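Entry 14. Structure prediction run on the chain below.
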Amino acid sequence: MARHLITSALPYINGIKHLGNMVGSMLPADVYARYLRQTGRETLYICATDEHGTPAELGAKELGLPVAEFCAKQHDAQKAIYDGFGLSFDYFGRSSSPENREITQHFARRLQENGFIEERSIRQVYSLADGRFLPDRYIVGTCPHCGYDKARGDQCENCTRVLDPTDLIDARSAISGSSELEVRETKHLFLLQSKLQGEVEAWIDEHGKDWPILASSIARKWLTEGLNDRAITRDLDWGVPVPADTWPELAAEGKVFYVWFDAPIEYIGATKEWADQDPANRDWKSWWYEATDVRYTQFMGKDNVPFHTVMFPATQLGTREPWKKVDYVKAFNWLNYYGGKFSTSQKRGVFTHDALELLPADYWRYFMMANAPESDDTSFTWELFSATVNKDLADVLGNFVNRVLSFSKKRFGEEVPAGAEAGEAEAALGREIAQLLREYEEHMEAMQFRKAAQALRALWSAGNSYLEAKAPWLEIKTDPEAAALTLRTAMNLIHLYSVVSEPFIPSSAAAMRKAFALADDTATWVTADEARSLSSVPAGTAFSVPPVLFAKITEEDLESYRERFGGGDEAA
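Output returned:
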């Protein structure tokens, strides 16, 4: 059986992330990793903060902190939020780690040895107002291809074209806003992607056949336009330094590697960080080097696709070493805010720390996955959020759990009642649940998360339909044994829901599971046959009624959310 390696795009160190970042990489990766673990697959889920580049330097400068201290504080702040969302990383590392420095420099040396790195003198933009060379992303202007007036010097967010700063129209410094820019000569290292294009194309032809259209189309668009050689060093004080044993002159000048060169390598670096914590029992290389038994899945937003499907594979191929390359790229479109983009820089939309302040993580987890931007962009609105929470979580699941357990406790005490033998209604329910569970599993295996959420909701709805049809509140008046059977069956459904809902709503699933005092409740998943029998919670099992799982969002709540975060015409 294959081992599963999962990575999600590294969140940048500078600032707390918004919900669009969460749903575009980390949350679906977590849902998938949880599902794989529950169904018995060996799984390693790796992520890290992306800590190099100019924004980190500027963020530290703004707060008057050394950049290393700034990054350490930001890493801890982000990790606390991801813990709050229940993200089950096996390791959450840092791209500034010694491990990443070591492996990045190794990659660069190997690329140099194989003739895929070249030192070139180039003319680069220098800001007179800022007194420094400007990294590509800190030059902004109008994209020559689509006319977007906030394009960066490395890539246009609007059309995803890769750019050089000199391509921009009306270029200006993103730091000072000054257009007093001049071009000066400086030396940098270039990755000769043009020499690797044929190999990258062949690799994508072989491995990208089953990728989502979003990922494969972006990768092939890059290849069709042709891979250009790309500068992989920058004039910065913070980053992985160019190794002096290979490039002494550039090292003396303080050159560091481009953040997009070292950031994907941090997937490997973070795995080594994880292994270095317990070297006697963890082998990082077995996941990355000659790892023929590993299936590697990457999760990311569409803006990250080009670097992960073209630049990083080119880097790996150029080392001429057997590094594990991605098997499946799960790419996402944008989650927008009332039709406009979430924006960290413009502070538009709901940010992850604010979300956790308002409501428990499971509300957000379920909403985002049920509305995941898989096939196209989707839009967050407070109205859609409250409707999803109220209808799916509060009405369908929460109400079912509460009324079953509360009614049974009131009528039969604090143990699961025995009641009559299961009849045709229970057999039909078992068959329906088994079929719905198979559909849920199929969607999870295919990483179709919106469909998986629909299948999960259908499982919850089946319990409500059974309860309404049997009506134990009426049965109890004429046939208490029949009512007891209905409630026992419903309690078995609650336990089943507690297991299979865990990938989406782990905290609520744990609360449901803890309601039953089962002596040996070690099951990690429920098979179709087990689901059909509905017998995991036998009569006589003690139970308790948990607190309300999901409180409804009221109109007063909505008004306060819209007032605080915006919503409607003014948000768009």
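The longest helix spans residues 382-412.
Filed with the rest of this week's runs.
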